[in-house]
Amino acid sequence: MEKILIVDDDEGLVHFLERFFLKKGYAARSCNSGQSALEAMAHEQFDLILMDYKMPGLNGLDTLREIRRSQVKTPVIIMTAYGSTDIAIETMKLGAYDYLVKPFDRDELQRIAADALEVNRLVKEEVCFPGHICRPSISSKGTVKIVGNTRRMQEVYKLIGQVAGKDVTVLIMGESGTGKELVARAIYHHSHRKDKPFLAINCAAIPETLLESELFGYERGAFSGAERTHLGKFERCQDGTLFFDEIGDMSLSTQAKVLRVLQYGEFERLGGNQNLKVNVRIIAATNKNLEKEVQEGRFRKDLYWRLKVISIQLPPLRERREDIPLLVEYFVNRFSEEYQTPIRYVAGAAIEKLKSHSWPGNVRELENCLRRAVLLSVGDVILEEHLQIDADQQDLRGGSQYQLMASLDKKLEELLPDILRFSGEKTHANVIDMVEKSLIAKVLKKCGYNQVKAARMLGISRNTLRHRIKKFNFQVPADFPENAKRPETE
Ligand SMILES: Nc1ncnc2c1ncn2[C@@H]1O[C@H](COP(=O)(O)OP(=O)(O)OP(=O)(O)O)[C@@H](O)[C@H]1O
Ligand SMILES: [Mg+2]
To answer: What is the DSSP string of 188-232?
Structure first.
């Protein structure tokens, strides 16, 4: 269970926060001064610290300095009264994770705390790989392993070992589920920057404008809704490592700004004109063929060249089937422990079945298949029948419905935190609306805004389409007058 420390001299707020986190399934502990918080931290590790800035005795800033000495990696969120955002920004420069302006609402608290806990997991759970010594676990989170002994994987380990300590940009390529994020984290954990932040950003999961504000931050008033200055990931990652996941999905204009940071170490917050300097190591990953993206004009050549100086290509699982028994052992042990279901052995026929599958979803798919098998197993044995590898999954490879569903599923999982953050209480209705709006916009464009064709392609009546166009306020281009003239019932 993740542990949260609340530090505030306001008893009412402490009570509210404790109840809030307990209800969400975390363990919460509280202290009413900076001094007592430091004492608590001398005996206990926390996963997140929420701390008031203004307290009698040690204030938030002084306490933060001390925390950085003892619990280097634990994210700290500073709570501050309205009007003191400048102070809050100062604390972030000293390594606070983020700040909350009192009074804050539950959604904001939930979002910031969830983000911070995710970062905590990423930095504290150390990733090990064969041939390299892992430090003893730095927290209760322990370690995870990159598993595999084939020659292709040995080459990967060698490269990780060679580049980790060199402070260079690294590009990790490979199909979905091959372990790109795991490799990025292994590089971070074996680098000189291991005690500094590791922040990740998924370029495919966030719309372009939001991605820029997440990366570069914005000034108060930069756009409507920008009520407070927001520090972006670059600024919060000073001296740390920034992981750009799915960099192939980054828009050309954002690519230009990122290139500037890579070349000159400088950027501006959105709506700001101050040139900010930053020292960040970038690790990027993609499942796209970036060379092809460059040829087709979707990715900047100069950025590509800069990124690919050191690149690591992860093999798909089907090209390293000899590793499957090892991976099976690793995952079965892990899930047996996690679900307290002791598994004594995996039948030979089950291993053969796993070895003969093509694994379009790579290690992630194998991991999920084994998780299910451990949960479904009867007694302490995993048999062939406990493995759900649908025959149609095997047959419908390539552009199959299964793959489509899998990638939709994955995208949704990535987007879920943002969806929950932005859709308020009507998550279901809002998500359906968002998907429908995006789908209709794309089909309309594909059909040259011909509503008859679009309705046919969507499998809805023209009337329904017209209602949606109105509902979503689409601007159908004026150079398609036939759209307006067509009779209602088609
Ligand atoms: N070699 C490996 N050994 C152990 N676990 C692995 C290995 N490769 C991947 N995994 C596990 O498989 C899952 C997917 O890995 P990861 O997220 O790193 O893949 P990815 O390449 O980033 O995928 P995507 O492109 O879909 O984001 C994770 O749970 C990870 O721990
Ligand atoms: Mg990934």
So the answer is: HHTSTTTTS-EEEEETTTS-HHHHHHHHH-B-TTSSTT--S-B--
